[in-house]
Amino acid sequence: MSFDALALNANLVNTLASLGYESPTAIQLEAIPAILAKHDVMAGAQTGTGKTAAFALPILHHLLAASAEESKSVVKAVRALVLVPTRELAVQVQQSFVKYAKGTDIRVGIAYGGVSIEAQVDVFNAGIDVLIATPGRLLDHLRQGVLSLKQLDFLVFDEADRMLDMGFMDEIQALLKQVPSDRQTLLFSATLDAAIFSLSKTLLRDPKLIEVAKRNTAAAQVEQVVYAVDADRKTALVSHLVRSKNWHQVLIFSRTKQGVDKLVQQLEQANISTQAFHGDLSQGAREKVLQEFKQGNIQVLVATDVAARGLDIVELKYVINFELPFVAEDYIHRIGRTGRAGSAGLAITLFSQEDALLLEEVEVVLDKRLPQQWYPGFEPDFNKMEPEPRRNGKAAQKQRAKKRVLGSKKR
Ligand code: AMP
Q1: Torsion of CA 91, 96, 97, 99, to 10 degrees
Q2: From CA 233, how far away is CA 374, in angstroms rounded?
Q3: Residue 18 domain-assigned?
Q4: Is residue 270 located within the same domain as residue 190?
Q5: Rounded to the nearest whole angstrom, what is the distance from the C-alpha of residue 66 to the centroid of ligand 1?
Q6: Is the pTM higher than 0.85?
Q7: Of the candidates 87, 291, 348, 355, which lies 20 to 30 Å from 200 by C-alpha distance?
Q8: Structural domain boundaries enclosing 310
């Protein structure tokens, strides 16, 4: 099926053709008609599935139709607001809107913390139709009276699960008081769990529920490999993989900022051009590093989970989990950085004994086993096996409960 069949504005269809988008992705096929038909939508879609265009295109379509009807003298006001959890995702979503709105007079603004408020205000004063914002900075702008959301037609929650994880509930409640109740609301989330369903009840009106992949599944086109390796040989294995296979644009996840910095230092010592990407870097530094990585000037980027949220790098083929995340769902977000929009990706997890429980958690979430392999020359040394990790009481209980839920399924 082509984009023509979705009856989108001709300008948008031409832009998509010039971008080389041949056909809508699964989420786009379902969400675009529902949003065009003015339904509220609750969509379970991971990053990499084309979810941004799934809401951006129909919103732009409506805005273009509305602006054709309005007289030129009408004062421009924010018509669509996209709330996102992180600055990186804000930038990525803004770039997508700008890309899709090319050739129209739709103006797109952005609001996120960590950078000067004045530059953002200048853009608002010139008039914007679409605003992409993180909740905290948006509230600052609203308190200062530089923005009004009174004429909002569309409210989008992007990566809503992460917004809840990051504790944005209070900000969301405060923002809801400032937006009209007569609006169309769209909620996108990588995972749809009880917390998201309960949030949706306060936000959405009779929403269409759209799920393109099974809940909590990883993007199918990502090959997942787990190498069992001694913890003290992980760095050597990473250097070996990157160098012997001449991999470029490799994204490695570490759990902590300290872990990131240590690994960067070690890989640099091994003459692999590597940069860190975590919350201690200034926004300017993060953007610069990301730009360099996208341009291929940096071979390896080592990131924490929060910082890497929302990274959109076309053609990113390799993700390495240096350690598994403490929150199993983050594994899905991590590997969703590769295999985007149908291209193939490889996600490697370096597994040592201390990760045993975390791997189990990931397998429960995926409802799938991830068999471990040995990488020749890096086989684990069983003489120095670490003791079985102690089970944290609460995690173990949760684990058992989840297993009971999945009990009858073949794993
Ligand atoms: P997202 O899931 O929104 O982060 O999108 C992932 C990537 O897929 C982005 O680089 C988009 O530019 C790209 N993309 C989105 N829709 C399509 C499409 N229909 N055909 C090809 N690429 C797409």
Answers
A1: 120
A2: 12
A3: yes
A4: no
A5: 26
A6: no
A7: 87
A8: 222-405
